[in-house]
Recover the amino acids of this structure.
């Protein structure tokens, strides 16, 4: 299948590109290196350098034989996105091309505006490009479990049948997020759903939880093929960051009570979820929503698991509860359904001590490059 | 009270400005004449010319003694909005500054993008300006009943208590709109609600139905103080347009079966609703949602009423069912609650034959200027 990956330079975009070519798909990646630019602007270093896309694709091709075509440009620009769609005529579009960090979106007005404008402008352009160039193509958009927030009732997969005053209606599950970034994802979903039902497009919205991990079947720990890996508090997801903090001798910073519970998944499962979604497209006029995670943990659970794994390697890992810079419930009900991807055949890679130890052993190679002042960035919600 | 009216040149913005000064408030209006520009670009004529804001405010001042200060500029530009807020330090902000037409938003990609970018960028700038310059001020944002769509259950005022699998949660009422414009209003509400609860702002979101009418207590049919009045299918609201069509001898164009039911209100009631909202501000950290309409009608009801009123004036009014250019339910359940504004003291001006006859008598003055090719504009949803 011809698959276009938007945001192909990112933590998930690049591993997805390799994975889909390994499964025989023809892949084109697009990126404008926005994440790299924002990291430079915010003085954020990575744990290890990651080559730019032309170099990575060349390495991947030399190792695997699979070619990935690269377009560098801004998908907010219609002329650019139109050119990419017109030349490639994708059958599926995997849309990662968003500013993906909650703390970044809460930094200041400029960051909020960039997040809002970038995320919605790219999404609307993708919708119009599909309509114009490949109306039968399947849009696989990354959403986030954060759209749902933490309601006091069970979270279903995308839709909720409501009984009210003796009548019934099936609504998009009502969503309330706890950052501007997550709020833009709610908007994305509403935007996509409007055009899907108006124009009969096909779409899958993947409500993903925080992802962790470095290794995939394709990168095999080849350093130049590893994903873009942040360990700072702005762009680093919590478990990845805790692993680096443990190795770097920086206490695991648990916000507030640490009872914040979310659904997590291994990066390998993200790739499998994307592939399963692409291989089983939504119907025309259908917005199909999957909750994409494999198990739930509180932040306290994660910190404890990282400490235990660290102990296996002789690391002395401290856990420190710090004042919560976010505005969020620190103890709450959390019971999200996540059966649709399992029904499609997902075989989860659960979080084990072995998984954490394997990550730590790799991160230890870079122990001396871990900078403490990169980690805690003091982004406050209020 | 110091009240800033954003979008002060529009159909509702200008009447609101006069009304609030007549009630003793200090008013500043802001507009970038976007609606005028879009009308020019789409070759849309008004029934009668409306002076620009400096001239209108001068006329109003000479007649009433009330001064209204004018800023012309684009609220998407932070430097401009910051200057306005910093100089005036409003106590309330009435936010009408959006591209308000569903058909315009469905014209083409450029119009969709303009609607999305303008509406959300202005709203986010208003939020940041309030936070920076007047965090205690009350944001009164115009929403739309169209955010709710036409669910098969009763529509409550903004919030819905859901019972699900034995547990309960109060959600923002789940919304699903039937145009891109209305979808941007859903997004606006989500955006405002996020920052209201994160930063403790005060906000009222007025879910307004389609407004009709020309006359307010302040304009007293003084032509140069009348509102910006569209009778085309793009910017004209349905009842206003039907009145002009009846006078102009153009059949009343009912889309499809005509069972589309909405909540309507007289322009006088819009002004009263705004004043009541401003005079009774929301609490800090509260997003208060009112459903702003006074009675519900189907399109068939409206067409019948206009025909009957036309008959009173000896007009022969035809009703013509045309293929529906929109994608919407033409027959549906519709039972929206609207008690909060009545509880605050709203005394509705209901739609009567007298109201329609009074409008028609005025429109007849311009009968020769009604251009048939201005009315039906063939904007198709699909």
């Amino acid at each position: 299948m011809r698959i276009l990956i938007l945001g192909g330079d990112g933590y998930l975009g690049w591993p997805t590109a390799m994975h889909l070519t390994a499964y025989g798909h023809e892949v084109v990646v697009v990126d404008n290196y926005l994440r790299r630019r924002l990291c430079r602007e915010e003085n954020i270093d990575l744990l290890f350098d990651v080559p730019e896309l032309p170099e990575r694709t060349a390495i991947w091709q030399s190792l695997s034989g699979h070619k990935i075509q690269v377009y560098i440009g801004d998908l907010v620009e219609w002329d650019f996105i139109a050119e990419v769609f017109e030349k490639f005529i994708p059958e599926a579009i995997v849309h990662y091309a968003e500013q993906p960090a909650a703390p970044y979106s809460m930094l200041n007005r400029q960051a909020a505006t960039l997040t809002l404008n970038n995320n919605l402008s790219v999404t609307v352009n993708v919708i119009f490009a599909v309509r114009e160039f490949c109306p039968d193509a399947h849009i696989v958009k990354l959403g986030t479990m954060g759209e749902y927030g933490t309601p006091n009732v069970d979270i279903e997969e995308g839709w909720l049948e409501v009984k009210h005053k003796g009548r019934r209606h099936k609504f998009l599950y009502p969503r309330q997020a706890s950052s501007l970034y997550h709020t833009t994802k709610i908007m994305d979903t509403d935007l996509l759903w409007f055009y899907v039902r108006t124009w009969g497009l096909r779409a899958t919205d993947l409500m993903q939880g925080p992802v962790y991990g470095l290794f995939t079947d394709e990168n095999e720990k080849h350093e130049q093929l590893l994903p873009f890996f942040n360990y700072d508090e702005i762009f680093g997801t919590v478990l990845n960051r805790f692993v680096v903090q443990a190795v770097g001798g920086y206490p695991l910073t648990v916000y507030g009570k640490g009872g914040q519970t979310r659904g997590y998944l291994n990066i390998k499962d993200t790739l499998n979820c994307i592939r399963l979604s692409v291989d089983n497209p939504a119907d025309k006029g259908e917005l199909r929503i999957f909750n994409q995670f494999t198990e739930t943990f509180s932040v306290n659970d994660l910190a404890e698991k990282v400490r235990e794994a660290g102990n296996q390697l002789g690391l002395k890992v401290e856990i420190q509860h710090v004042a919560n810079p976010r505005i969020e419930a620190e103890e709450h009900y959390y019971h999200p359904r996540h059966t649709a991807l399992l029904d499609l055949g997902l075989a989860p890679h659960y979080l084990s001590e072995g998984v954490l130890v394997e990550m730590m052993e790799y991160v230890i190679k870079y122990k001396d490059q871990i900078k403490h002042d990169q980690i805690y960035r003091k982004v406050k919600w209020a």
